[in-house]
């Protein structure tokens, strides 16, 4: 098992996975129960009375829309809560990918076994990707199942699109944290910087549309590509997935390169 870092990492995640699964389902149950018992049109009238700038700051460039199930889930789940969950898992496990073993001084023992540095970090990155995928898939399954139970017509394509973006954004920040960990050898620093970048991206994507002179800065924020095209309502975007994939592969390559050349003695 020791030489298969990927399987060991997933095995260690098993209890956390159960807690995440239960927690996401309980939250989704609460949200869907609320949706099924209220008049969304009433909430829509309230959201219309809000200043546009406040609506965009809270709900993103498209603002708040409580008049439909898609708009309600956008505002209550996929603007803040779901991204926090996916990014937290990705950044936490990404930041600890190499730095945790390095700090505990167990890395030299692991690398003394028949496993190369490249294979070690690749399996760590892959395990982080699978854990983040688990969070995104759990959201998808929860709202598909509960949409049926509560007789709510949630568009499958839209839900699939935003959950895919959730996964891609999560692993992008996760691989950035992996790279920072290979540079510093400090898991706390890697997690903190990865989380800070995510927060900065959220603020930039929500604030930029409010100021004409700053509007173009939104394209530098990953949150814009995550939710800027309103995927829950309009489905898959033709190219918004590309920045995630490109940045992810760049930081995977940089992480492997840095880890292979770093002096760990």
Word description of this protein:
There is one protein chain. The chain is mainly α and 265 residues long. The protein has one domain. It has 13 helices and no strands. The chain has helices at 5-12, 14-37, 40-48, 52-59, 69-78, 81-103, 107-111, 117-149, 156-184, 187-207, 222-227, 231-234, 242-261. Helix 1 packs parallel to helix 8, helix 2 runs parallel beside helix 8 and helix 9 crosses helix 10. It starts with a helix and ends with a helix.
Counting DSSP H or I runs of 4 or more residues, the number of helices is 13
Largest beta-sheet characterization = none
Low confidence ranges: none
Number of strands: 0
- Tell me the domain tally: 1
Q: Which value, in Å, is the CA radius of gyration? A: 20 Å
Order of helices and strands: HHHHHHHHHHHHH
Helicity level:
over 70%
Element layout with pairings:
Blueprint lengths: L4 H8 L1 H24 L2 H9 L3 H8 L9 H10 L2 H23 L3 H5 L5 H33 L6 H29 L2 H21 L14 H6 L3 H4 L7 H20 L4
Helix pairs in contact: 1-8, 2-8, 6-8, 6-9, 6-10, 8-9, 8-13, 9-10, 9-13
Short précis:
The chain has 13 helices and no strands. The chain has 265 residues and is an all-alpha fold. The chain has one domain (9-261).
